[in-house]
Amino acid sequence: MRLGRRQGTLDTISGPAALTDEQRVPDTRVTTMQLFNRAPASPTAPVKPGVRALLADAQPDGSVRCNACAHRCLVRSGRTGICGVRVNTAGELWSLAYGAVAAAALDPIEKKPLFHVDPGSTAYSISTLGCPFHCVFCQNWEIAQGPRLGLDIPLRPMSPEQVVAEARRSGARSIACTYVEPTVFLEYALDIGELARAAGLRMLFITDGYATPEAVGLLGGVLDAANVDLKSFDDAFYRKLCGARLAPVLEAIEAYRRAGVWLEITTLIIPGANDDEAQLRDLAGWIVERLGPGTPWHISRFHPDYRMRDVVATPAATLLRAAEIGREAGLHHVYVGNAPALGLEDTRCPGCSRVLVERNGYQVRSHLAAAGACPGCGRLLEGLFTGVPT
Ligand code: SF4
Q1: Where are the domains of the chain?
Q2: Which of 155, 309, 352, 368 is 20 to 30 A from 19, alpha carbon to alpha carbon?
């Protein structure tokens, strides 16, 4: 299991080597909290299903159409969908992921990354197993592909009430459904989200954007913010490297925006795969046109992982050029992640260029005035700000 500090990855995937409360890192407010029990059976084994799935259409032949994500799997009796955690049991679709937590950690919100949501705060982050994507460069592939690969991943049963209680106990200001595509645990996320709202916590998704419009319709009622991976602007990239398609991602991003969810976009730049300048220009232009120039765009440095270990890490020059392309397209906030030496993670006021939030790794110093205002020109920074973090 991996120890890492990169955006979007787990600091520690739970298991025998996981850290305990006493091993928290004191200076960065990053902690990893849970030591999970080993599950008695693989989630793909015929274990007792969690809850009946939403957005499921039973078919006359006993199969069920799952409409949670854009794959819209036709799941035969006794089988799971592509994500491996939604199973057809006797003509009904059930979620195996409900309440079965594969990873939980207290992360800086900058790690999600959501730079325009309460900077300097922490997000209690959880994940189940399973993912509709099969990205060959996945950084969390053990839990994302665990059901498909038959891996025996330790799980911890947690009710939505327990998740919210842990989040409150940890001092988090938000709960993030992350590490794998959270649409696969839609029902669990919805229940957590309702309780989070009642507890005064924000609800966040870190997502590949594959939710259907129906799923976004449900999630819009509980989600405050989402960071959506827009991995490429090329459908062939999605098909070949992720087992998915581009168009549903673009549709979902716009649906989240219409639902009033604060959005930030992340693009992992992989040398030779999605670093074409014309394509990056189109992608950045699409963000400006469809979401607005105030939408943060996080360019992220690729590191070799999973089944893409033969590609080098993204060169600094490529990242700098991508950032330049984003700014040329009109984006006000272009950040470069996983490359701290470049120093491109500060937030500046789009009105007067004053530095509003300084970031050095996960050390954050905010100069924002109340409600996210620039103390220089008074312009309101776009995002969600409950106050000045301590
Ligand atoms: S969530 Fe997506 S991948 Fe999983 S069963 Fe439903 S449609 Fe298939």
Answers
A1: 21-37+100-372, 51-95
A2: 309
